[in-house]
Amino acid sequence: MIKQSEDGGCGTSFYGITITTTPQNLIDNLDEPEYFSNDGYDKTNMDYYLETDSGVVFTVYDWKEYAPLQMNTKYDFHIGGYSQSDCLKAKHELINLLWGEL
């Protein structure tokens, strides 16, 4: 189970791992993000700070869209973590949450 992290994701990095989904799918499954301006003026419109049951802290965010996100359009969201393996674990858990076991 994925939950909101109290860690805040400070120090996470992008290791080339993304997940393609809609903003609405993230909101439907993860609730509201910690940051959600959706005005296109910042490098991100929405940021999640999350944690798996096993304690893997990670972030999910759009990157440099520079336009408001359309809620039902698919985007490549970055997954940030403390290591590439953490990002891969997070992606696997996100896939299971968003679409079930594939």
Topology overview:
Elements: E1 2-4, E2 13-21, H1 23-30, E3 35-36, E4 46-52, E5 57-61, E6 75-81, H2 84-99
Antiparallel strand pairs: 1-4, 2-6, 3-4, 4-5, 5-6
What is the C-alpha radius of gyration, as a whole number of Å?
A: 12 Å
What is the N-to-C succession of helices and strands?
Answer: EEHEEEEH
> How many individual β-strands?
6
The stretches of 5 or more residues where confidence is low (pLDDT under 50) are: none
Mean pLDDT: 94
Question: Fraction of residues in helices?
Answer: 10-25%
Give the number of domains.
Answer: 1
Spatial gap, N to C terminus: 16 Å
- Quaternary assembly: single chain
Overall structural class, as computed from helix and strand content, comes to alpha+beta
Shape: globular
Question: How would a crystallographer describe the biggest sheet?
Answer: 6 strands, antiparallel
Number of helices in the DSSP assignment: 2
The percent range for strand residues is: 25-35%
What is this entry, summarized?
This protein has 102 residues and is an alpha+beta fold. Helix content is 24%, strand content 32%. It has one domain.
